[in-house]
Amino acid sequence: MREVWIFLVFVCVGEFLYLLRIRRQLEEWLRFLKGLQEMPAGNSFVKGNDILADINFELNGILEESRKQFVELKRAENANRQLLTDLSHDVRTPLASLMGYLEALDSQNTKEQEEYIHVAYRKALDLQELIDMLFQWFKLASHEQEYQMKTYDINEMTREAMIAHLPVFEEGQVSFSAHIPDEEWLVKMDRTSYTRILGNLLSNAVKHGKCSLIEIAVDRCGDRVLVSVSNNGIAIPEEELPFIFERLYKGDSSRSEGGNGLGLAIARELTRAMAGEITVKSVQGGETCFCLAFPLLVREN
């Protein structure tokens, strides 16, 4: 009987030591997995040739395959970055020359050539806009966008952006109204990015909203400043509103004709980069309103 108890004690001690080994090995694996970011080329090791060693062998195999895929993805990412950079430079140079000649011809042409030259010039402008938008999205997606964050009067910047788009309103036969306070409301943002955001919203309303009236308003709500861009054009269907800011999402073909689905996605990314928020509301038979919200700086006395 005593021998049986001794045997059981040895069995229990053995099982306990084995479980303890498993626990220690699991803790080691956990530390190893957490440290992969600091040591991506490392492997884990297990002594012996039992099931733990087999599991460790399979784990190292999975990690090695993941490393190979990661290297391939980085190589493809670098290749795509270089391709897009080269493409943008290769296309921009001849496009600039083409636009220069077309612009000159558009102002000095015969009546027979006028229609064709004007169409060609507009197409060149559309191509330039597409290239600029693709290049902008690429910089945002690859986190290469640089921001010059400074303090500005958002009311003054909004007026400047609106004035810059007056030719677009006139060409599209769109009326506009502005409700911008004369006060100085300070915000911290990148001037170029804010101009691009408003430009995308205004161009989107004219080209795709097919509106006849655009309203721009700046208001305050607590510690935030709100900039709204509203139009009376074609409403955005309710089921599409949650996806309207997604990359390449074009939505209803009646609104997206000629669009590339990048303008609103870029507007959202730039807004977020400046600690802002962009939302949209659209009512059938009413208006579509995009609202930007940015933190308002309080001037110290």
Extended strand count: 7
The main pleated sheet reads as: 5 strands, mixed
Compute the gyration radius: what is it? 30 Å
Q: What is the succession of H and E elements?
A: HHHEHHEEHEEHHEE
Lateral strand order in the biggest sheet: 2-4-5-7-6
Q: What is the average per-residue confidence, as pLDDT, rounded to a whole number?
A: 76
* Strand-residue proportion: 15-25%
N-to-C CA distance: 91 Å
Unreliable spans are 252-258
Number of helices in the DSSP assignment: 8
Q: Specify the overall morphology.
A: elongated
Structural class: alpha+beta
Q: In percent, how helical is the residue content? A: 55-70%
List keywords for this structure.
301 residues; alpha+beta; two-stranded antiparallel ribbon; elongated
Walk me through the structure.
The structure is a single chain. By secondary structure, this protein is an alpha+beta fold. It has 8 helices and 7 strands. The protein has helices at residues 2-34, 51-107, 111-141, 154-164, 166-171, 191-207, 253-256, 263-273; strands at residues 149-153, 175-179, 186-190, 213-221, 224-231, 277-282, 288-295. The radius of gyration is 30 Å and the shape is elongated. It starts with a helix and ends in a 6-residue tail after the last strand.
